[in-house]
Structures are given as structure tokens and as C-alpha cells.
Design goal:
This protein is α/β, with parallel strands linked by helices. The protein is 44% helix and 14% strand.
């Protein structure tokens, strides 16, 4: 039965939310009585004349973080006093301050008219009081502290420099002064979704059950599990409403990977200041697990290995109980360690362990694509003469650069009713509606189960839905895009006729068509450009995409970032110009790509594999394109598609992130020395692409001179 009592063990996964509501959340009335009592005590401590040195009072522990379990829980009352003027003053005897507080509380206990029953005791230099109601009891420790923040809401780097100096001077343990940052710890948990708090309560309750078996090992701070749960939610979900069982599986899965755990936040400190950066780098080099207090970078709350190893075993047992006699149920895709903390010589292992899709994923995609392709060929247009000429698998799965982040597939459909680029623009909406209608009909016949995503566009270019069937273990997300078959029947290794691009360019120049609007017509070329590259280059693309996704999560509120495709192309360009070898140093390649991102204002990148300077219409258009505002990164399949975009996207945000990342562990080798980058030019010229046409080169040089 594992280590927990039959109560938790016997709860079915679908009943866990009911357990939380009925057994884990504190009763509202009891919580109110304790809140009123705590507020009365804090008001007394701040206002009493017996303690003139009190600056302010903060609430910490589970109580301050609002993660109190029903029954028995913990809290701290942190009293910031003027007598403690520096971090190192925390090491002084605080017995006199605690005695005054104890005397004051004892004297005024009856006059304060407290809602909850209070018991105070002073034992071995500690002052503790317990508040109790009918169904709730919370034990508080009173802690005098140095007011490190003063009147500031956020700490300055100077505060952390002083913290490091104080730790060195007093030979205090790392994290020993974290009580000074109680307000930051409290703030980190406030305004989190109610359901995330419920997940924290469930994880803490599980740990409470585990402690019966962990008597011989020192207890793990509950704070560590709370932070790990927040990390799992932030990285894997971020939604206010989510499946509590998926969240639980994710946290338990991270506990199973405790030897790799490295978790930290940049909300109160970062790598910009040298002292703080050195503290962080030292922490990130230390043995796992590492879970850094978001308020105090010296405080690794996850460092007790013995306890983690015991929890690892119990996490495995409960995960088995959540899905008895079945494969593990769905969980969020969360890595146990951030890329930033991974040394350069371990990047290949990072990619293999965390980014490469497994065989099951690829089989799921292949099966799902086969299901949809057969549907499109046989069922899509039953009441018209329209037929699907071909379907092409696009996106990352078509290129062979998919990440291990769930099952997704892009399918481009080429119906014979689309006779031109303009007909694609005018008729794709009706085709999407027809495909949806037929999918719904199949669903009613119980052949397929589909769930459609509501488009925010009046005339959508894509049909997004998830698919489930008897032969799929989990849902697969699809994007289906109708397109004009501009390439016809393209033979392997052949290039399109210049006429194809001349027609596209004429339309682009004479209408309101956006650059790259018809790039779906060239999906085969886009995929072929990447699909036959060396496996290691595809892995480097995966790594860059993973980095991009982390930046996107951080920067999405600030502005529109350039498309991922731009970063994929930039990675290929870096490899072509700087290495070209099938086997290369991944850290060197990664560094080269990020350095190119920092030089975005100089970038001009294009290829001549599918179009070139031979045809006059294409030549003149290309010369115009490569003179546009930097960055310029032309789609090798579609010359109208500048995915660099000039000023269209916020490259400066991405460049700032890249600059910060260049000081990360990723660019240190196994001995700690910096990794070098490849020598790659930021500007492609017609001549560097092999063009010997003197008129072209002369025109390019003349235009370039006018721009400088």
C-alpha cells in the first residue's frame, strides 16, 4: 500500500479535487478566526510602547504564503527591529528582544480579545505561540530580523552584495539570513490561482503522509515542495484552470528526477550584477537537487539528498497508483533543469534527454497523419467535383525538428479547385468550412473524435483541431491549411520554374498581398531545405527553438518576437558558413547563433537553392529584398517571405536575452573555459552565393553604397 494511510491511497484520481475541498482546505470560519487573531497580535507588536525598536511585522511560513493545510500547520511572525542594522547582526543573541516580546504578549494576551486560543512558550532561545480553533491549529515562531528591504518593494543588487559579505564575515550558512526576505517570499506566492494553491496543498499532504516513513532522515523544508510545484505549473501550464491530476503527475515526475533538479527564478535577482552572478553560478554548479529561494540566491532549499532519495521512491509508487495497470497518464512537459544551467559539454545529452521526440511520439504523428490524409482523400468533398491532389506534412514534424512537447502536426492540403494564388486567398475560407463540416459528420458517426479550436479571425487561413481515435494513445493537435498547388508535381532534386516565382512576385507587387502570404504553396521546398540536413544540425535547431520558447514565455507581454522559422534558418546559415561538418561542437554552434541574434541590425541572409538571379523579374525583386531594413532573412522557398522582417518584430528584446545568455553555463566547456564561436559573416551578397553576373553584383554594390 505504500507509506500513506489508506485514505490517500484509496482516492481515485478523479476524486482528488473533492479530497482537496473536503479535507485539505482550512475551514473558512477557522481561517478567519486565526487571521483576526494574527492581525491583532501584529498590530500590538507594531504599536506597543514596550517595543519601540519594532519597524514593521511580516507573516511568513505556510501561513504567510497562504498554503496552510487543514488541521496542523506552520507560520512565522517576523519582526523587523531597528537594533538589527546589518545582516551580520542576525548572529547576535536575540534573547533580550524575544524576552520583551514574550513579556508583552503574556501581559496583553487577555486584553487583546483574541478570536483564537493562544498558547505562548519560550524554549531553548526560541519564542513560539500556537493559535487554535475547533478544527485548525497553527504554530508560529517569532523571529526578529534586519529590515534589509527598508521601504523598497524590490531588492537592489547592493542588498545581495551586502548579504554575501555578511555570510563571508560571519561564516554563516548560505540561506541563514533568508528570514530578512520574508516579505519577498510572501509576495512570490500571492495572487497565484486558487487551483495552484490546491495543488500545493495536495503535494504537501502527500509529503505529510510520507513523513511517517522518513523519520530517520531530516525533514525536507515544505517550502522546497511549494516552490517545485509553482515551477511545474509555470513551466508546464500557466493557466488558472487545469487538470489537478496532470499537475500532480508533473510534480511527482520532477521528484523522480531529483538528481537533475535545478530550479531558480529571476524575479528579485538576475545575472546582471557581478556579485549576484557569481553567487548564482556557484549555486548552479553545485550538486543536484538545487531549488533556489526566489528571494535569497544563497538559499538552496532543496539540498537534502537523503530525503529526496526517499521521496523519489514514494513518488514512483504513487505515480503507479494514479494509473494502475495502464500507461502513465498525461502530465505537463516540464524539464527538471533549465538550459541556462547546462554546461556546454553536456548540451548533446540535454537534447537527447529532454528535446528529442521519442519513438512513440513519432509513431503517434505518423498514425494521426495517415488517418487525416485518408479522410481528406475519401471524405472531404463528397458533394462536389473537387479532389485533393496531394497532402504535405509541414511544420517541425515535416522538417524533422519536432520537440518533445506533445503531439502536433501541420498538413497542407492541395485541392484541385484552387487554380491560382488569388483563388487560394478568396476560396480557402470556404474549403476550411467544408473540411470542418465533414470532420463533424465523421465524429457523429463515431469514426473520429475531434475538438476544434475557435479561430479569432473572420476568414481563417487554418483549421486547428485535436484528434482522438481508437488507435491513438492520446490526442494529436492538427493545423490543416488549404493551398494552391503552385509547384505541380515536383520531382525529387528539381527546382521550380522561374515562372512560378515571377507570377508570385507580380501578384505581390500589384496587390495588397503580404510577404510570405502564399508560403504554404511551397511547403515541400521548406521541408526539403531542412529535412535532409545532418541529424546533429537538426538537434541544434531543436536547442535554438527550445531557447526561443523560453524567451517567448518571458517576453510575450512586451511585444511580438520574430517567428521561430527565422531562428531555424539562422541556425542553418550559421552551420553552413561556420562549420558544414556532420559532427560539430553543439555549444560552438549555439553560441554562434546567439551572437548572430545580437547582431540582428546587420543581418542579410538568403539562399539561391530554389530561385536565383538568372531570371530578370526574380533578379530585380531579390536585389530590392536584400536592400530592405535589417534584419533580412529570406525564406529559401519563397522570395517574398522576409522572416527577418526589418522593424516588424521586436528583435531587440531577443537580442538582449541572447546577450545575457552568452554568460551562461552553456558556453563553458568541461574545464570551465569559454566556448568559442564560429566565424560567420552577418551579410550575404550575390557574389558570396556564387552569382558571377557582373550586372547583378554591380547593381548590388551601387545600392549598398547608397545605403551607407
Amino acid at each position: 500500500m505504500g507509506i500513506w494511510g489508506s485514505h490517500l491511497y484509496s482516492v481515485q484520481p478523479e476524486k482528488l479535487e473533492e479530497l482537496i475541498q473536503n479535507s485539505l482546505r482550512p475551514y473558512g470560519e477557522c481561517q478567519k478566526q486565526i487571521d483576526d487573531t494574527v492581525n491583532a497580535i501584529c498590530a500590538f507588536l507594531e504599536e506597543t510602547r514596550q517595543l519601540p525598536q519594532v519597524i514593521c511585522v511580516a507573516k511568513g511560513g505556510s501561513y504567510g504564503r497562504k498554503t496552510v493545510l487543514r488541521g496542523n500547520s506552520d507560520g512565522t511572525i517576523v519582526i523587523f527591529v531597528s537594533d538589527l542594522e546589518r545582516f551580520q547582526d542576525q548572529k547576535k543573541s536575540q534573547d533580550e528582544i524575544l524576552s520583551k516580546i514574550w513579556q508583552g504578549l503574556k501581559t496583553h494576551q487577555l486584553t487583546m480579545k483574541l478570536e483564537a486560543r493562544m498558547e505562548i512558550r519560550k524554549l531553548h532561545g526560541r519564542l513560539i505561540f500556537q493559535l487554535s480553533t475547533k478544527w485548525q491549529s497553527i504554530t508560529f515562531e517569532v523571529l526578529p530580523a534586519y529590515n534589509a528591504l527598508g521601504l523598497s518593494e524590490k531588492p537592489s543588487p547592493q542588498i545581495y552584495r551586502e548579504l554575501k559579505r555578511a555570510l563571508d564575515m560571519t561564516k554563516a550558512l548560505p540561506g541563514e539570513f533568508s528570514v530578512c526576505f520574508t516579505e519577498l517570499q510572501q509576495k512570490f506566492f500571492h495572487n497565484r490561482p486558487r487551483k495552484l494553491t490546491d495543488l500545493i496543498l495536495l503535494v504537501k499532504y502527500w509529503y505529510q503522509q510520507c513523513q511517517a516513513k522518513l523519520k530517520e532522515s531530516p525533514p525536507l523544508p515544505k517550502y522546497a515542495l511549494e516552490l517545485l510545484t509553482v515551477y511545474a505549473w509555470e513551466q508546464g501550464c500557466g493557466a488558472e484552470n487545469f487538470d489537478i491530476v496532470e499537475g500532480l503527475r508533473t510534480v511527482l515526475g520532477l521528484i523522480k528526477q531529483q538528481e537533475q533538479l535545478c530550479v531558480y527564478w529571476m524575479v528579485n535577482y538576475n545575472f546582471e550584477n557581478e556579485t549576484v552572478r557569481n553567487i548564482l553560478l556557484s549555486q548552479l554548479r553545485s550538486s543536484r537537487p538545487v531549488i533556489l529561494d526566489p528571494a535569497d540566491p544563497t538559499n538552496n532549499v532543496g539540498k537534502d539528498k537523503a530525503c529526496w532519495q526517499m521521496l523519489q521512491q514514494e513518488a514512483h509508487i504513487w505515480l503507479s497508483c494514479l494509473s494502475p495497470n495502464e500507461p502513465p497518464g498525461p502530465s505537463w512537459n516540464v524539464l527538471p533543469a533549465p538550459l541556462y544551467a547546462t554546461p556546454g559539454h553536456l548540451l548533446d545529452k540535454f537534447i537527447k534527454d529532454f528535446l528529442q521526440p521519442d519513438r512513440n511520439f513519432l509513431d503517434q504523428i505518423a498514425t494521426a497523419v495517415d488517418i487525416i490524409c485518408r479522410f481528406l482523400q475519401k471524405n472531404c468533398f463528397p458533394h462536389s467535383a473537387t479532389r485533393v491532389q496531394k497532402t504535405v506534412k509541414g511544420g517541425s514534424t515535416g522538417k524533422g525538428t519536432a520537440l518533445k512537447t506533445g503531439s502536433d502536426a501541420d498538413l497542407v492540403v492541395f485541392p484541385d479547385s484552387l487554380k491560382s494564388y488569388t483563388s487560394q486567398k478568396s476560396e480557402r475560407c470556404s474549403i476550411i468550412k467544408e473540411i470542418r463540416k465533414q470532420l463533424e459528420a465523421c465524429q457523429q458517426e463515431k469514426k473520429l473524435e475531434v475538438k476544434f479550436e475557435i479561430s479569432k479571425w473572420k476568414a481563417p487561413r487554418v483549421l486547428s483541431f485535436s484528434l482522438k481515435s481508437r488507435v491513438l494513445n492520446e490526442r494529436v493537435d492538427f493545423d490543416v491549411l488549404p493551398a494552391f498547388n503552385a509547384l505541380g508535381q515536383l520531382n525529387s532534386g528539381s527546382t521550380p520554374s522561374p515562372k512560378v516565382y515571377a507570377e508570385l512576385i507580380d501578384l505581390y507587387k500589384s496587390s495588397d498581398a503580404e510577404g510570405g502570404e502564399f508560403s504554404t504553396c511551397f511547403t515541400e521546398l521548406q521541408c526539403n531545405f531542412v529535412a535532409f540536413r545532418p541529424i546533429k544540425l537538426k538537434d541544434l535547431i531543436r536547442l535554438v527553438k527550445h531557447w526561443y520558447k523560453q524567451c517567448e514565455r518571458k517576453l510575450k507581454q512586451k511585444g511580438s518576437l520574430p517567428p521561430k522559422y527565422a531562428l531555424e534558418l539562422l541556425t542553418i546559415y550559421a552551420w553552413e558558413q561556420g562549420s558544414g561538418a556532420e559532427n560539430f561542437d553543439t555549444a560552438e554552434g549555439f553560441r554562434t547563433v546567439l551572437e548572430l541574434v545580437t547582431k540582428y541590425q546587420q543581418l542579410c541572409v538568403f539562399w539561391t537553392v530554389n530561385y536565383n538571379f538568372e531570371d530578370e523579374t526574380v533578379r530585380n525583386f531579390l536585389l530590392t529584398q536584400i536592400q530592405r531594413t535589417r534584419p533580412v532573412i529570406l525564406d529559401p522557398a519563397d522570395p517574398t517571405g522576409d522572416v527577418g522582417g526589418g522593424d516588424r518584430w521586436c528583435w531587440h528584446f531577443l537580442a538582449k536575452e541572447a546577450t545575457e545568455w552568452l554568460s551562461s553555463f552553456c558556453f563553458k566547456d568541461g574545464t570551465g573555459y569559454p566556448v568559442r564561436s564560429w566565424k560567420v559573416p552577418t551579410v550575404q551578397t550575390p557574389g558570396s552565393c556564387g552569382c558571377s553576373h557582373s550586372e547583378v553584383i554591380g547593381s548590388w554594390i551601387a545600392n549598398a553604397r547608397r545605403n551607407f
